[in-house]
Each structure stands twice: as C-alpha cells, then as structure tokens.
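Supplementary material to the annual report.
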Amino acid sequence: MLVHMSTAVSEQVPEAMSWSTENCTISRTMDILGDKWTFHVLREVFVGVRRFEDIRARAGVPRQVLTERLAALIERGLIRRHPYRLPGQRERSEYRLTQAGLDLYPVLVAMIQWADQYLPLDSGPPIEPRHRGDCGERVTVVMRCEAGHEPTPREVAFRPGPGAQPR
Amino acid sequence: MLVHMSTAVSEQVPEAMSWSTENCTISRTMDILGDKWTFHVLREVFVGVRRFEDIRARAGVPRQVLTERLAALIERGLIRRHPYRLPGQRERSEYRLTQAGLDLYPVLVAMIQWADQYLPLDSGPPIEPRHRGDCGERVTVVMRCEAGHEPTPREVAFRPGPGAQPR
DNA sequence: CAGCATAAGTCCGCTTGACAGACTCAGCCA
DNA sequence: TGGCTGAGTCTGTCAAGCGGACTTATGCTG
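Predicted assembly:
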C-alpha cells in the first residue's frame, strides 16, 4: 500500500524506499529522451519535417546541438538516415522514424492530451492527433488494465516488478 | 496527407512546414517537463517518496537543482507542499502531486511501456503500473479515436488544429 | 572553365547551468 | 550547553549550450 492511502497521523516509510533506483525504467528512458531539444527534434520528425535545415529552422535548435542529437537518436535506434535528392542538387540525408521511434506515439499523444487540459490556448489546440484515412477522428490515450478496466490516475500505482533490486 | 505516404521519387513539402512552431504544444510541455531532473523528481513523488532528503538521495539530484526544480513544479501546479511532523522533530514540508500532476500518469505509463519493449532488462521490468486494490492487474496505455478504433502508430497522424498559426 | 548557390555541417569565444563539497539555519533533545 | 537532523544556501570549477562566422561538397549558370 502506498502512503497515499495512509490516514494515520504518524507517517509510514513508502514501499519504494526499499528499492534501488539503479536500473529505473524512467531513468533509462530519460537518458535517451531527457532533454528539451531531443523532444523538439522528434516532434519535427513526427510531423514530417525530416531535413537538417528545416528541423533546425523550425525548432530553433543550435546547429551543433542538432548534429549531436540526431547522431544520438540514430545510435539509439529511434531514427535512421535516408538519402534523398532534390532535382538539380546533390544527394543529401533526411531523418525518418524507425519502428522504435514510431512507437513513441502514445508518449507524445499523452503529453499533448495533458497539455491541452492544463496549458490550453484561447485559440484551441495547435496540433491534434487523428486517426488517418477515412475515420479522421481525434485520438487520445487511455489507461487500461489486463482485466479490461480503465482506471483513473488515482486508481493506478507503480509497484516493483520482477527486475526490482533491493537497496 | 503526410509525406510518409508519398511513394513518388520527387519529394513534397510536408504540410507541417506551413504551420508555425510558436505555440507548439510539445514545446510548452517541454518548458515544464523537458529536463532529466524534473522527470526523476516526478518519478520519486509518483512512487510515494516525498521528502527533500529522500528524493535527493534516491534520485541523485544535486541539492541546488532539487530546490530549483521543486519550486518550478510547485509554481507550475504539478505538486504542492504539505507540512508534516515526525515525533520529536520540528515541522517540515513534503511534496505531493496535485490533480494536474496525477494526470501525468498516462505519460509515465506510456514511457515505461515503450522502455519495457525497447530497453528491456534481463531480469524483467523493475517497476510496473498496476490497477490498485482487488484487481491488481498490469496497466498499459492504448490509443483510441473518438469513433472507438484503436489505431496503431502508423495509423495516427498529427494534424493542425484550430489553434494552429500559419507562418 | 569561373563563379555562385545551397544543405549540412564545423569552429570559436562567451555565457549559463550543473556539479561536489562545505557551510548555515531552525528547532528539538540529552 | 552542545549536538543532531532535515532542508536548504554558498562557492569555485567545469561542461554544455549558444549565436555567429567559417567550411565543404556538389550541381548549376554564364
């Protein structure tokens, strides 16, 4: 039971205190995604902007930072280089999402959904995730457990799994 | 239609190029969440670790950075201070999630789900989101559109919404 | 051929932020 | 009185981000 549920005056030690943060899943994810420019770059690639100069100009990333972040994202397997050639120009590279990159969609959709609720603009959402093709309806994320329930945030808790290490 | 779907050799200009990144939802979210320490701090609060010293020691955050991040998270309304008093000690503060903070659950669950797939540990997941109480089953996020479909990442696209500004 | 245009970088010096480690402060207790 | 503890603040060092100038490779134009 997490301390959230405690009603006693005297505090209990949270269960999580006895588990290591060594191999924490969030840390390992943040090692890849955990800075503001990486997310800006991914946003551009997600909306279809894939060339160095276009990404740089739209996201406002310093060139050196963009070079470094693209290399890191390629090394981590989220994007890959893809040669292209404009008529009358030499061959260059653009950057496309891999399957691992595409599978970040739920993360981006969850963030947009949160921001649309808590950081709304007067003019409405500037960007909307939608079901492609004939359907075209707006897409949201929902949490669902394996029994088929759809719990609210208060009904969800993080628990140690098989890979948890004692401290 | 996004360029993803183009099969022609000659490239098209992505639709997104004609929209401003000024008020982008991802940028505005990253202004709040977009650095590695903020996510580490949130992780601790999510798993029930709420006191300055405990957060600092478990997350390995430099004190000064923790002070600054907690203040920012309070100002943005994701957490709030809550006084507590251990027996025989003076009153101190702990940090708890607000409703806005709790509603980041889907973002964290989506990240963990992605990492469990693409950055797995031999020993299994160290942390698992679960439905509290009697159910106890594992929780995942799914994308769902308003027509009730559950599209895969390739079937979702980001489109400009009512608040999109031309460049 | 010389000269120009362009995408995608690299180089440079400055400033900002992260960092480790020492220090402070307030209340409680022996 | 002096010591302990949680929650900070202070300080000097060092890495990273930054804007702006420079470079490189190729194709096009005259």
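Residues 51-53, 56, 63-64, 66-67, 86, 89-90, 92-93 of chain B lie near DNA strand D (CB under 10 Å from a C1').
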